[in-house]
Amino acid sequence: MSSVHNRVLSSAELQAFGDELDGVRARHQALLGASDARYIRRIVAAVRWTGVAGRALLFLGAFVHSVLVPAWIAGVLLLGLSKILENMELAHNIIHGQYDWMGDPQLQGKTYEWDIAGTSENWRKTHNFRHHTYTNVRGLDDDIGYGLLRIFPEQRWHPFFLAQPFVAVVFALLFEWGIAIQDLRIGRVLVGKMTLRQLWKQARPVGRKASLQILKDYVLFPALAGPFFLPVLLGNVAANIIRNVWTYVVIFCGHFTADAETFPKECIRNEGRGHWYLRQLRGSSNLTGGKWMDVMTGNLSHQIEHHFYPDIPANRYAAMAVEVKAICKRYGQHYNTGSLPRQFGQVMWRILRHAFPSKPAPERPLVAEPQAEAG
């Protein structure tokens, strides 16, 4: 439970809070144009050329042994950078439909397929719909611990969680694979709610996509190096691990810091727009760090703004954040932001602390009860 004390808003305040945040959306949506299109096309080019340069350096190191180590390191870093930019600044934002207004068939949210083991179709279901609709609502948002980790005391404790410091490290290294199988809900087979045949049928699209990724990164490109297969293979493995760990760190910092909250299912009953904004605010966390942090995180350094406006081009979040922070301050709501070391340190402490039994604090109301307002 967060130690932050947010002011409880009345119904009238909540309505005004929502209206002001809607106004921020309307103002920035009206400004969409050439600069936004130019930005995303530069990201497309950056992904392409850092990827080409990274793979070229891996091949150079494989064939010219005198530069093997420096070329391999540079190749891994550039290929890892390409994969980070593609997943976070390009694919994640495109799949949210942020650039549908451009009419570019390569930038359409419903058809874009990304460079990762999981399918974009499953991501649209688990992330765009389930996570963004029910952010941090226990029992509805599968991103709370991803079925592997107990991060909040409100989650029921099981002895399995004693191993979660180790599980968390493995999950970070293999993060794309965890995302790939998230929607399969394999645990239902273990408790008899789904048969193996049903699981196999549901897993086919994921299997096809994962097979293509394995073929590309771990067979095709290394095979082009001929007898120097191994250095290129290891370079691809290292680049994917870099991408996986960075993505894990950014996503966990966006949702599981000390001040982030979870909510009971009852919280969303008859939920209005202002109430929805308030829940998104209290379940999200930002990162400081400036322009390069914004680009490297796909602008998820502004996780609060992303949860408020997931279909607005993310390059606008920094400007929107200035307005959002001022609105939160006026209404007495904590705006959760901090440096990467600070926020991730809090995440690691949650993972360690809640590996052991712990009791949740009493639930705090998001909004004032009607009888309290009447007084």
UniProtKB/TrEMBL annotation:
The chain crosses the membrane at residues 56-81, 160-180, 218-239. Pfam families: FA_desaturase (PF00487). One of its GO terms (biological process) is lipid metabolic process. GO terms for cellular component: membrane. Residues 71-337 form the Fatty acid desaturase domain. One of its GO terms (molecular function) is oxidoreductase activity, acting on paired donors, with oxidation of a pair of donors resulting in the reduction of molecular oxygen to two molecules of water. Keywords: Membrane, Transmembrane, Transmembrane helix. PANTHER family: ACYL-COA DELTA-9-DESATURASE, DESB (PTHR19353:SF84), FATTY ACID DESATURASE 2 (PTHR19353). This is Acyl-CoA desaturase.
